[in-house]
Write a structure and sequence with these properties.
This protein is an alpha/beta fold. The chain has one domain (2-254): TIM Barrel (Alpha-Beta Barrel), CATH 3.20.20.30. Helices cover 46% and strands 20% of the residues. It has helices at residues 13-25, 41-51, 69-78, 97-109, 123-132, 143-159, 179-191, 194-203, 217-228, 245-254; strands at 2-7, 30-33, 57-63, 86-91, 115-119, 135-139, 166-175, 212-214, 233-238. The protein has an eight-stranded parallel β-barrel with strand order 1-2-3-4-5-6-7-9, surrounded by eight helices. Helix 4 (97-109) links the parallel strand 4 (86-91) and strand 5. The chain is globular and about 45 Å long.
Length: 258
Amino acid sequence: MARGFALSAGVAPGVIRAAAQSAESLGYGSFWVNYPAPTDGLGSLAYAAHETARVPLGVGVVPLHTVGPDVITAAVKRHRLPVARLLLGVGSPSPGALGRVRDGIAALRARVPARLYVAALGPRMCRLAGEVADGVLLNWLTPEHAEQSAEWIREGAAAARRPPPRLATYVRVAMGPEAADLVEAEGRRYAAIPAYADHFARMSAPPSATAVAARDAAEIADSLARWERVLDDVVVRAVTASDSVDETVALVRAARPG
């Protein structure tokens, strides 16, 4: 098991630089940003790449329905991302998600010598990820549903007669007196997206059940252990009030690996 740290790619470059430096120095197993249109998450990840030398760098995830493999390949080269450390995540909404992801992974496999991750929510995408990916990035799930998702992924890998991919998940984490309110607000935003609304209904759980609203560092560690017993990597997805350097680095330190 390894613990990662993740930010929105839309935060200020100085926040990404400071958080990446801190994550590497504190022994995190990976550092991630997302890809929220119109922000180029690969460009944002380059800020982290320039400030680090060892920690694997992930983007979770590039949307294949708007950004194709050729554009992704060109961006990796343009931003001089270190492919030996790159965890390149892709995903797609429906309709056509399964075919788009299968074709996208095949195209990227021939172009970018990085570890390729697939974002998965439902059973069919989990099984496909097991068939084709080096890693799977799960999101907004309870520890119990993490076990179910892992089983679907292993089924896909077994059907393809290959080893299971590495299993990672984002877990939203907020800390301090405003933590519960921050998590609730983030959850409402995602619950308004149909695919995530279906996901929460499938789990019979609200978004808050998939996140950590902690008073202090000890509570973060205790809470994350529920996912860490199930998956290979638990990636702390920072939820802060203002995305400042100080509060982000404070969360990096509070959630650091044991």
